[in-house]
Amino acid sequence: MKTLILGAGYAGLATATSLKPIPGLESLLIEQNAYHTFETRLHEAAAHNTPVTLPLLPLLRGTGVHLEQARVDYVDLDEREVGLKDGRVLMYDTLVVGLGSVTNFYRIPGLAENATELKQLSDADDIFNFVNRTFDNGYQGNRDIVVGGAGLTGVELVTELAQRAELLSKERGLPPFNIYLVEAGPKILPILDEALRAKAQQTLEEYGIKIMVGHRIMQATADSVTVQTQGGEQKVIKAGKIIWTGGIQARDIVRGQKIEKGPGGRIAVDEFLRAKGYSDVFIIGDMGLALNQEGKPVPTTAQHAGQQGRTTAKNIMNIVQNRPLVPYEPTTLGEFVSLGGLMAVGWMKLPWNQKLAITGGIAHVMKRASEWKWRSSVD
Ligand SMILES: Cc1cc2nc3c(=O)[nH]c(=O)nc-3n(C[C@H](O)[C@H](O)[C@H](O)COP(=O)(O)OP(=O)(O)OC[C@H]3O[C@@H](n4cnc5c(N)ncnc54)[C@H](O)[C@@H]3O)c2cc1C
């Protein structure tokens, strides 16, 4: 059975590294980069240039999966073909699509043109270089940073940037820049409960981050954003760098007459993670719209992408060995938000669906532990 796995993110890489070389299975992983990116740590790369990639080839040893570094142009489920940017067209018996998500700019005028995203290594490099430039003695421009979106990514990013600014400020004797965290909704980190959110908010305030909840970005230019309060009052914030972390949508690269799409353009899948209407196609990670035990969409997180990848690998081997498929059973083991340095807040799942709230250094260790767990699962 010829199996193509598209994307070596959390979902695709978990599939590839969970496969075993079994008779009758021929698998090819197609990824545009020669490395896997730890997307969950891009904010650290943006502030401190921390390494956040892993070369793919060594990770595939012993799996029987081959790697092709290429860019996918389109996927046509009705024709059963994958078109590559270099013009080649590949056929498959079974297809796994894990090409992730792209930033959603919600058509806010000027935002896509003027804001940096935080989705890949080049975005992190761009932010890192800006921060360094602002501490050059000859730098003349505006040094302030506006981050739009106070979800997990935005909050993790501003705390790391504040730390970096503090460090460079001491080193080079210049004042730190201002960081504005702008959020249209009424609160930061809506995924957390009240007590953890309050702790996170206090940490941000201690860093001197200017939190502007209830402020919607209405437009952006090269050096400013215009924000509006719920009461209709408008303000202009001048900035040297605008970063948008306010939303994602599934990568729009798959076509097929029977495809059903849900919120964020995610492709509806059945209990085995197969695209509805296409029993040979698994859509996993941020692109897929899997439902949990209560019928609610599974969150777009690395944790769930990895689980989906591992279930899909089992099912590919089950198909080859003529065994029944196993359904996907999502579990959220916990959620942690890093707040710069050794600080984090979050919760972990306990037996009987209890949650244990954790803050401070221990939460930081838990967050790191989940990253190490991911790394050792693919290594
Ligand atoms: C800064 C940041 C912090 C985050 N923090 C957390 C966190 O703490 N916890 C958590 O659970 N989640 C977190 N997330 C979300 C998490 O990273 C995503 O949910 C996860 O990466 C989704 O996995 P995926 O495999 O679907 O996609 P991805 O990991 O994005 O992988 C997609 C892969 O497809 C490749 N690709 C894309 N297009 C093409 C193409 N045309 N051709 C070939 N290859 C292609 C990409 O290079 C990439 O390797 C964070 C995200 C960001 C941006």
Automatic annotation (TrEMBL):
Pfam families: Pyr_redox_2. Keywords: FAD, Flavoprotein, Oxidoreductase. It comes from the Bacteria. One of its GO terms (molecular function) is NAD(P)H dehydrogenase (quinone) activity. Its cofactor is FAD. Belongs to the NADH dehydrogenase family. This is NADH dehydrogenase.
